[in-house]
Write a structure and sequence with these properties.
alpha/beta, 7-stranded mixed β-sheet, 5 helices, 7 strands, hydrolase, Gliding_Motility_GTPase, ATP/GTP-binding protein, P-loop_NTPase, GTP-binding
């Protein structure tokens, strides 16, 4: 195979399609991440932020944000000829969390985006996936001007289990996002294999 194309004369491979969620707090970069890697024009359900939403949408730290996702973001990326990921970005505000159960149906795993300036905003997403035994990876979105901390300090602040991968990423950068997506697929596969191991004792 060369650059993802089938060799001449070989029948095309039917790709495996996997569903990955992109979650995290309000304004953390979920829509940006989906848009950075999607090979199709991403489906976005963004609405303008209004004065009516000010009492419920905390804009501290993301004052320049003018739109918000109200249902989901959707994108697609072909990682290999035989592997396609469908990306579903979840809405960040608490009032839209009722949609998470539906979006998480059939998901292989999730990327939880975190912002070191508003780390507490991703606690709900971490808790959600832990409670439902959905494997996830935490990607610390490296915003310009945001303080940088050692990975272990962030892990401790989020109280993550040792097995949960945590990496620094840039939601605007295609290669950085691809690395995070490959990481969550590998983690989810290892997680599934561990759960299949017979318990001996």
């Amino acid at each position: 195979m060369i650059f993802g194309r089938s060799e001449r004369g070989k029948p095309p491979v039917e790709p495996v399609t996997l569903k990955i969620l992109v979650a995290g707090g309000f304004g953390v970069g979920k829509t940006t991440l989906v848009g950075a890697v999607s090979e199709i024009r991403p489906l976005r359900t963004e609405e303008l932020l209004t004065e009516a939403g000010r009492p419920v949408d905390d804009l501290s730290g993301v004052e320049s944000k003018h739109t918000t996702t109200v249902a989901m973001d959707f994108g697609r990326i072909t990682l290999r000829e035989d592997l396609v990921l469908y990306l579903f970005g979840t809405p960040g505000q608490e009032r839209f969390w009722f949609m998470w159960d539906e979006l998480s149906e059939g998901a292989l795993g999730a990327v939880v985006l975190a912002d070191t300036r508003r780390l507490e905003d991703c606690f709900a997403a971490v808790d959600y996936f832990e409670r439902r035994s959905i494997p996830f990876l935490v990607g610390v979105n490296c915003f310009e001007g945001a303080p940088r901390y050692p990975v272990e300090d962030v892990r401790q602040a989020l109280d993550l289990d040792a097995g949960v991968p945590l990496l620094m990423c840039d939601a605007r950068d295609r290669e950085s996002v691809k690395e995070a997506l490959i990481g969550v697929v590998e983690h989810a596969m290892a997680y599934a294999a561990d759960r299949r191991q017979p318990v001996t004792g």
